Amino acid sequence: MNAARKLGRVRRLVVKVGSGLVTAAGVGAAPERIGALAADIAAIREGRRIVLVSSGAIATGTARLGLPERPRSIPEKQAAAAVGQSALMWQYEAAFGRHQIQVGQVLLTAQDISDRARYLNAKNTLLALLQFGVLPIVNENDTVAVEEIKVGDNDNLSALVASLIDADLLVLLTDVDGLYTDDPSVNTGARKLDTVDAVTDEIARLARDRGDPISVGGMATKLQAARKAAAAGVPMIIASGREPGMLRRILDGEPVGTYFAPKADRLGARKRWIAFAVPPQGRLTVDAGALAALTQRGKSLLPSGIVEIQGDFASGEVVALLGGAGGREFARGVVNFDAAELRKIRGAKTQEIEQRLGYKSFDEVIHRDNLVIL
Q1: CATH for 12-271?
Q2: Which CATH topology does 280-373 take?
Q3: Rounded distance, CA 267 to CA 65, Å?
Q4: Where do the domains of the chain lie?
Q5: Residue ranges in the chain modelled with pLDDT below 50
Q6: Which of 41, 144, 253, 338 suits 62 as a labelling partner, its CA being 20 to 30 A distant?
Q7: According to the model, what pLDDT value does residue 234 have?
Q8: For residue 332, what are the contacts with CB-CB under 8 A and spacing of at least 6?
Q9: Would you state the pLDDT for residue 207?
Q10: β-strand 306-310 against 283-286: which pairing, if any?
């Protein structure tokens, strides 16, 4: 955890703000908070293209509908989002308008990201908005999203957006000033981490979520976002959104918040999509030989190395690969065979595929070019 911060010249920046920073309980969208955020972004915008990922639609709708607490059912959440999203965007348009910044709303679901064609379309839309000098404001489309098509939280969504536009930096503004070794509100000896080289299991165990009734994500989802950003080669910073001028301080190189270093060997765009944008439709457990061949020798997955198949997936879909002690997920990839075909050729040698299926379209279950080691 001693690596120096390496931001370089930040030309494309993704900023994510949580509900607690732009709304107030019982009030909804908070004009003074949104105004302060707009002023901070306006102060750093010259020479940069910025995307804002903002939560707050359901919290705003909850307040405008006079509901005593955040809705629990999907239809009620969708209704609150429908009411709240327009009110939230109105506040953003007014706040940024005072700085002569035009904004555009972009609402996404997990399906927009997991479908390759829609993923590329979303990318092109965001890049076109930036080219026009518009500041895109992104949120999950909670008015139509159900559990099956939800990203789930805007921390992970912001990391996917950062990967989508090849951002130079992702900043998560929140109500804490970084990642601590323990909960600082309970343990006065808790220490804030300045730099995290990689989100290891040890780092992941530091996540402490306080159950804020307004917020959806927590530190755990922020660490998930850090993993996604790192794989895309994007540095990430968790910092306090309560302090004025925080974005300028970050870009000036001040050691504020917690910095998460990117991986030096960043994944290519298609492999980033396979690894993080697509929910796996099934799981394949492989033996020790296949695990070593995939992780150490850069090989493709063959049917002979598969010991168990879970799920009902089609050819061309993404599956998770499990192996080693405890059967942990270590990779994801696009399969060349559907689940029924794989159950017939599991454990078979390449030359036995045609005999078992009556045909052979591929030698590999997952080709190395369509495989990502996590």
Answers
A1: 3.40.1160.10
A2: 2.30.130
A3: 44
A4: 12-271, 280-373
A5: 1-2, 148-149, 210-216
A6: 41
A7: 94
A8: 274, 275, 278, 280, 318, 319, 320, 321, 371, 372, 374
A9: 79
A10: antiparallel
